[in-house]
Amino acid sequence: MGRANAIYYSMHDPFADFTTSPEISQVFGEIIGLWAAVSWQVLGRPDPVSLVEAGPGRGTLMADALRAVRRVMSDFSAALQVHLVETSPRLRAAQAVRVPEATWHDSLASVPTGPMILLANEFLDALPIRQFVRRGAGWTERFVVDGEWVELAVDAAEVPPRRAASEGDVVEVNEPARAFVGAVAERVVRDAGVALFLDYGPERSAVGDSLQALARKRPVDPLVQAGSADLTAHVDFADLAAVARGAGADVRGPVAQGPFLAALGLFQRTERLAQGRTAAEAAALMEAARRLAEPAAMGHLFKVMAVCSPSCPPLPGLA
Ligand code: SAH
């Protein structure tokens, strides 16, 4: 899956295949920007501070966040330096149009040390998982070879412990996501800072195959030709929280995206934006806000989790 997704992101406009929160409403990025600004205040206003985004897609979230922050939090705006972690040259070009002042990085390693506020929306779910299958008393790992699933026996020590895995059950692990969250945790412990992860997945680690492929906004077989569909998997927040705590960081949440956005003013801000628009535009804005927050849409399955310096003060929406 790793290579398939690297090919996919470098060759396609992924946003033809799926729609993410910042692309649904500008209010999403604005609210995340204000979250970053308030978090910066509670962290004691470090200056300079790196405002980092991992996997920024088209750059929409960062552009909306910076616009909101410039308007109402000019001191944060003056202190921040924008760093984008992005591997796809194609998406880097799109980001440069919307966030020309940014500096780009292939990984977190080259982002300057020092206090940071990191944002990552639907980034962890794009990193490649491994899948293990319970077979008899042991485990196999499954791979795709020439468009077919192949299972090879694997040492049980490789498989993350899950209670109650029965014959044929699939257990997943996302090693790059664990490594990323671990590196973020080490940084916020050493240099102070906070990271906000928004992604979809259950609150508790679960057994089951969550690999999904989307092409043209419709589910397709994950075995379709490598690189032609977007591959994602549920994010195991409990596992990643344990990684962050293991590195000495504090974890806040996860909470569901709906209550998080509502607490931070999603609907009030949307109503204000809708004033003075046509009735059709106003209705579309409210519909977009509901899509982000309603439990049956993105409000429940999507979760929000912060990783911060040890004993950091309460964070907005996560207290
Ligand atoms: N955050 C955006 C895009 C989500 S799609 C949004 O919400 O719209 C996933 C993003 O992560 C894309 O920008 C993709 O190119 C990037 N990405 C995937 N794997 C990556 C990796 N290993 N390192 C850095 N960026 C990666």
Question: Would you write up a description of this structure?
Answer:
The chain is an alpha/beta fold. The protein is built from 12 helices and 14 strands. The strands form 3 sheets. Strands 3-2-1-4-9-14-13 form a 7-stranded mixed beta sheet, sandwiched between helices. A 4-stranded antiparallel beta sheet has the order 7-6-5-8, with no helix packed on it. A 3-stranded antiparallel beta sheet has the order 11-10-12. The longest helix has 17 residues. It is globular, with a radius of gyration of 20 Å. The two termini are 36 Å apart. The model has no long low-confidence stretch (mean pLDDT 92). It binds S-adenosyl-L-homocysteine.
The radius of gyration is: 20 Å
Q: Which bin fits the share of residues in helices?
A: 25-40%
The largest beta-sheet arranges its strands as 3-2-1-4-9-14-13
Shape, per Cα inertia axes: globular
Which structural class do you get from the secondary structure elements? alpha/beta
Mean pLDDT: 92
The helix count comes to 12
What is the CA-CA span between the terminal residues? Answer: 36 Å
Outline the biggest β-sheet.
7 strands, mixed
Low-confidence stretches: none
Order of H and E elements: HHHEHHEHEEEEEEHEEEEHEHHHHE
Q: Number of DSSP strands?
A: 14
Strand-residue proportion:
15-25%
Bound molecules: S-adenosyl-L-homocysteine
What labels would you give this structure?
319 residues; seven-stranded mixed β-sheet; globular; binds S-adenosyl-L-homocysteine
Q: What is the fold's blueprint, element by element?
A:
Blueprint: H1 2-11, H2 21-24, H3 26-42, E1 49-54, H4 60-72, H5 74-79, E2 80-85, H6 89-98, E3 103-105, E4 116-121, E5 130-135, E6 138-145, E7 148-154, E8 170-173, H7 175-191, E9 193-200, E10 212-215, E11 218-220, E12 230-232, H8 237-246, E13 250-256, H9 257-263, H10 266-274, H11 279-293, H12 295-299, E14 302-308
Parallel strand pairs: 1-2, 1-4, 2-3, 4-9
Antiparallel strand pairs: 5-6, 5-8, 6-7, 9-14, 10-11, 10-12, 13-14
Helix pairs in contact: 3-4, 7-8, 10-11
The chain binds S-adenosyl-L-homocysteine.
